[in-house]
Amino acid sequence: MSPTVKTHKIEGALKNKLLIKYRLRKAADHSTINGMKYLGTRCNSYGSNLDDDMTAICDGLNSTCNLNLNVMKNKITETVNKPEVKDEPIEKRKCKFPEEKLSPTLAYSFSQCFLYNRINLELKFCNCTIPTSPKESVNRRAITELKNLRHDPPKEPAGTSERTLAQALHGRIRATGPITVATYMREVLLNPFAGYYSTKDNVFGTTGDFITAPEIGQIFGELVAVWCINELQKFNYDGHLQLIELGPGKGTLMHDVLRVFERFGLSKDRISVHLVEMSSNLQRIQAEKLCNGMAHRTPADQVEPFVQEGTTGSGINLRWYTDIVEVPKGFSIILANEFFDALPVHVFCREANEGSATWKEMLVDINPDRKEPSFRFIQSTKGTPYSVVFGKRFEGREQLLKDRKRIEVSFESEQIAQNIASRVEEHGGFGLIIDYGHEGDKTDTLRSFKSHKLHDPLDDPGSADLTVDVDFGFLKHFLEQDEKAFTLGPINQGAFLEAMEGSARLKSLQSSTENEAYRKMLSNGYDELTNPSKMGERFKLLSIFPSSLKEFLMSSNKVLIDLRLELEINCACRFAQLLQHDLFGAFLRNVSSFEDPFLMYADSSSKLTEVGDDKL
Q1: What confidence score (pLDDT) does residue 198 get?
Q2: How far is CA 384 from each of CA 135, 190, 248, rounded to the nearest angstrom?
Q3: Where are the beta strands (DSSP E) in 93-224?
Q4: The pLDDT value given to residue 95
């Protein structure tokens, strides 16, 4: 009778979640054993940094490696996945993470099951029985390369970050198989050890890899701020106001918005700023912009939801968070400029000969035809947990798919959109999303930028930005699916700025200087923002309001940033002239009174020009 390998420690730790009995191949050699010993020893060296499950697994690996070699050469019992909990309720299966609001950016376990279940929606499809050990066909010596994937800061300089990340991803794929496009994007952009946003200081601007609208000129941020103040007037709200920005970049947009808010009389005691930023490197850059680098990090032993805190020169409090769920609840203005385009997406394909909506997921695999480490895209032969979720999620909503054969879907965008909708409905406020995107007419938009040029997204991961066009059709659906919020738009950026009389602001700035070169720079910058062949049509804006205010806002004669309404009324009629109480309407009617704070912006000779300290 062949002896069996006992795994009491592993079984005790994982309980009903997972039961693994390791199958050791008959021809196990010393290199395999040493590799397993290395993994167990390395895991145990992290001590308290690992959870109980991982500690138990590492102990199990060590004890397994110390078995007599004669025992290991014999046939071991087959892997057993029990108890079968696929159809059992959560309370019975004793899942470690039941219906909680899981953060999509954290790995709650090294188990493949929990990696697949970073969003709540997938919990109902998971049976928590996916083995954590690599398949038998994998060379187990590749397990040792998993050490490169840890997010602990290196003790010594690791050399070229993108090369290190490529090696780490290569080792991970060798050990566990192909990874999703979303996993690849997350590692490339946000890996604290070697990710793009974690290691590069000059990602924005002319010296970086790409440029955002706020960096082109102050007009953009000022007009966004004026729009926010105009919408705020509709709520007749005079309490504490939270300004929340997702992905603040260099902090330029928030800097311009705060300048305008202060000029319109919003006191520092009434405003607090909450910035959601994953990258500690960008948090530092934002602190330098907004509070002269005087922000301080939250001590590790202090239990606070924010990771950094500071104060602007005018005394406005700023706090940084890594997840929007950590931001306090309250009446909020939520801004997201070029945020959703950087969220990881899953890519699904529907084969041309299939009549039904059976979707296969695109994965990232090792490229065997090129020198290592290099990667390629492949299509899964069977359904993945995410493709199952996608099919179930959009069952009966074929109008969103529009007969597309390839779709990019961000489940993280769905989770964040639902959070925004809940906030504006339950606590009041509104939001504005600004990004380049489409309404369902594009299918393959994943690309990479390096030094303002297109770059192979699979080449030198971590050295270039990864981005996708935002599918505003999906985003609107995510925001409105529970009828907590309603949206207006999307509209083109150029149309938005023109409707907000951006041309008048441009002339005001140009008249404030006699420097012809500076005037030319202002003109070129505004053309970049509004020209249809540049950013004017590629970038779009989507506004978000509580669903309870839909009837009021739709019947109001105040500013509704949806130019479709303007076109339906009269294409020849100026948008601002339709309004009775809009400051730009007052500007056009040559109203000279300055009793209303909005009219401060209408004075083309001074006012905001005095605080126009940001140059193009």
Answers
A1: 73
A2: 16, 24, 34
A3: 179-180
A4: 52
**pLDDT at position 65, please?**
42
Q: Name the nearest CA neighbour of 279 among 344, 196, 206.
A: 196
Q: Count Cβ atoms below 10 Å from residue 517 Cβ, excluding itself.
A: 8
Residue indicated by tokens 């602001």 = 505
Cα 601 from Cα 598, distance rounded (Å): 6
The reported pLDDT for the residue numbered 131 is 32
Report the pLDDT value the prediction gives residue 549, as an integer from 0 to 100.
Answer: 85
Q: ∠ CA(542), CA(545), CA(550), 5° rounding?
A: 115
Whole-number Å distance between alpha carbons of 442 and 433: 19
The Cβ of residue 75 has, within 10 Å, a number of other Cβ atoms equal to: 12
Given a contact cutoff of 8 angstroms between Cβ atoms, the answer to whether 344 and 352 are in contact is no
Cα distance between residue 25 and residue 581, in whole Å: 79
CA angle at residue 185 from 181 to 191, to 5 degrees? 140
- Low pLDDT (below 70) residues in the chain: 1-163, 200-210, 352-357, 396, 452, 555-616
pLDDT score of 208? 55
How far, in Å, CA of 506 to CA of 508, rounded? 5
Domains of the chain and any CATH numbers: 213-342+413-611 (3.40.50.12710)
